[in-house]
Every structure is written in C-alpha cells, then in structure tokens.
Amino acid sequence: MNPIEIIRFALRGLSINRLRTALTTLGIMIGVMSVIILIAVGNGSAKSVQSSLDRLGTNSIQIRSGAGGFGGGGVASARSRGNSGNTKQLTVLDAKALVDQNQAPDVKQVSPVMNANATCVNGTSTSTPATFSGVWPTYFEAANSQIATGNYFTDDDVNQGRRVAIIGNTTATELFGTDNPIGQTVRCGGIPFTVIGTTTIKGSSGFQDGDSLFLAPITAIQNSITGYVGLSSIIVEAKSSKTTDAAQTEIQSILDARHHVTSSASRDYRLFNQASLLTTSASNSKVFTVLLGAVAAISLLVGGIGITNIMLVTVVERTREIGIRKAIGAPKRIILTQFLIEATILSVIGGLLGVFGGFVGSHFTILGVKPVIVPMSVLLAFGVSILIGVFFGGYPASRAASLRPIEALRHE
C-alpha cells in the first residue's frame, strides 16, 4: 500500500465521525491559540512598560519620599506621611540643592513634582487627568515630554505663580473636542487655568494613558490646590546615560546631608535609576511571559490527551476493520502508520486553526494591553501541536497494530 492510499484511509477514518473529529481538533486549536495569544500579551505588556520607561529617557532618575517605592504620591498620601512624623518629606529646597554644580557636577537639570487630583471643567465638558502635576519648566526635558502646540511656561511663570497649563491630547479632546485649546480657560478644582500648550501624543501604556495630562507651574498648584506639603517626587536628569550612576551618588550625598541620614539603611527617600528600572522590568516581564506560556501550554497538553482518548475509542470501534485488513495481508507497519497519520492530521489541522486564531485574537486589546506576537511562539506552538499528535497518537496506533487478526474478527 503506497503512502497516498494510507493517507486516504486515514482521512476516511476521520470522516466516519465528523463531530468527534471536529471537537478533538478544537481542543488542539484552543491550546495553540492560547499559547500564541498569552505569550503575545506578556510580550506586549513588556514593550508597554519599556515604552513608558523610555519616555523618561535613559539618564533620568526619580526621587521619592520614604522606603515604600512608588506607592502614593498624591496630596492625601503626602499629608498622611507628613503627619506620621517618621519621614522627612522632599521639598523644593531639596530640588534646588541638587542643581548645585559644585556638589552635583553630573546633574544636568532638576524639577520638583507636586501631584494632585482635580477635575477640570470647560462649559459642560469635564476631564479628570490621570496626571495632574505642578512642575518647573525643566521637567519637560528631564521627563522627555515635548510640546506639540503652544509654548512652555517659564521660570517667571513659576516665580509669579501664574495659573497657566500645558495639557495632553486626551485632556484637550475631553475638554475642547476639536476646538483649539490654546488661550482658553478651564477650571480645575474650581481654580481657573489658561491653556498655553499641548504635549506631543504619547499613547497608552497598559492602564496608564500618557496623554491624560495636566501640567502647571508648581507654585500655582501649591497656592491653589495642594498647599505647601511635601513634594510627590523630584525628577533629575543626568548629563548623559554614562554619568547616571555618578549623578545618583551625588544626589545621595546631598540628600543624606540635608536629611541628616547617617546610613543607607536609614534613608527616608528612594532613588529610581532608569537603567535599573529597565533591567528589573525586563526580568519581571520574562517571568510573566513564561508563566503565561506555561498556563497556555496546559491547555495544549489537555488537547493531546483528548487525541489519545479519541484514538483509543476509534481503535475499539474499528477493531473488526483492523482484523479484516490484517487477515488479507495488511502488515503491522501499515496499520501503525495509518493511525499515526490520523492523529497527526488532527493536530496539524488544529495547529493551523490555532495559529490563525492567535493572529486574529492578537489584534484586540486584552486587559488594556496590545498583544505583540512573538514569531518563535507561533513556530513553537505549531511544532509542539504536531509532536503532540505523534506522541499521544502513538499508543493507540501501536495498540491497533498489535491486535491479533483472530481476536479482532471475533470482536463485536
């Protein structure tokens, strides 16, 4: 019997019970599709985080109060920390001290950041920016935030506490629709601010909309909304990516002296070096992606078990057919090959459908993350699906080929 005839017999065997064949193929398809989509979600999440970090620049350093990382940072949290008496808050004077070129020669520029929560109103339109902050003009370069239209506010605006603002694209659209926001006035927390510029479009990073943004002179925010509580953070830009570590050491030296810190363990502030954040993010993203892939692989394994189950049922149902074929001279290898081909066809069809479903599913945003397909995951998932068909179809095929013709012909 030539290979073409063996394949024809295998296809005929699969067509005997089309519903069962379709359900088995569906199991493999779901497994392959899950592997591709979940790994794509993990990869998309990693790229989203990296993109968000890249916006700050490779030579950016963030300073936060306390030892708890990035938690909090709003007005309420700043007040609660200030009331605790255990942590000295970051102040504008700290930021000014870091600008001293004698003590910090590797620091290019600094900006204090005062975060707040406020809803802005323009007529009947409202917007609650995800980032509502008071900053210095140096913030825009230090945080790699560029202006698309209008102008930056100036040091004089900060000194005079002028209520001017630069907003992101999302905030502009929510408040003004298609109208030009430049020169218009909005009320945020009941306080009027004049829009003088809009930032370039940054896009979303997971759940964070980089264009839901409202930036004003820090003095205007402190005078009108937050009061003079501790800063949310300080953004520092080193002169280059090569001097970031040196700048970090200089920052620690200055703040240790100002906060009367005697040891690294007693520091009441934390520094977040962009390079270390990228390294940590890459490591965490790899673990996250591997875990997602492992979870998806379980469904692929279940699909393989389904192939074994269905092929065993098929062998039992076709026992007499097998006995007749062996009685008329069909060798063991022909029977073995036929059932292996049947199992492989199921996994190949399921794998191809899974790849197609994976590409389709990856075009949708999942949990706020835009999946990014990893080509290797597609090849791996499809290859594993074929191996699963051969492996899990091996035992049923061997069992069918080992049936004795007399016993098979007697089977009812």
Describe the protein in words.
This protein has 412 residues and is α+β, with helices and mostly antiparallel strands. It folds into 2 domains: 3-50 and 281-410, no CATH class; 67-267, no CATH class. It contains 14 helices and 14 strands. Strands 1, 2, 3, 4, 5, 6, 7, 8, 9, 12, 13 and 14 form a 12-stranded mixed beta sheet that branches. It has a two-stranded antiparallel ribbon with strand order 10-11. Helix 2 crosses helix 12 (332-361) and helix 10 (274-317) packs antiparallel against helix 12. The chain is elongated, with a radius of gyration of 32 Å.
Number of helices: 14
Fraction of residues in helices? 40-55%
Low-confidence parts, pLDDT < 50 over ≥5 residues? Answer: 68-85
Q: What is the number of independent domains?
A: 2
Structural class: alpha+beta
Radius of gyration using CA atoms only: 32 Å
Q: Kindly state the number of beta strands.
A: 14
Identify the overall geometry.
Answer: elongated
Strand percent estimate: 15-25%
Provide keyphrases for this structure.
2 domains; 412 residues; 14 helices; alpha+beta; two-stranded antiparallel ribbon; single chain
Strand-helix topology:
Blueprint: H1 3-15, H2 18-54, E1 60-65, H3 75-84, H4 92-97, E2 107-115, E3 120-122, E4 125-127, E5 131-135, H5 139-142, E6 147-150, H6 155-160, E7 164-167, H7 169-176, E8 185-188, E9 191-199, E10 204-205, E11 208-209, E12 213-217, H8 218-226, E13 233-238, H9 244-258, E14 269-273, H10 274-317, H11 319-327, H12 332-361, H13 375-401, H14 405-410
Parallel strand pairs: 5-12, 7-9
Antiparallel strand pairs: 1-13, 1-14, 2-5, 2-13, 3-4, 3-8, 6-9, 7-12, 8-9, 10-11
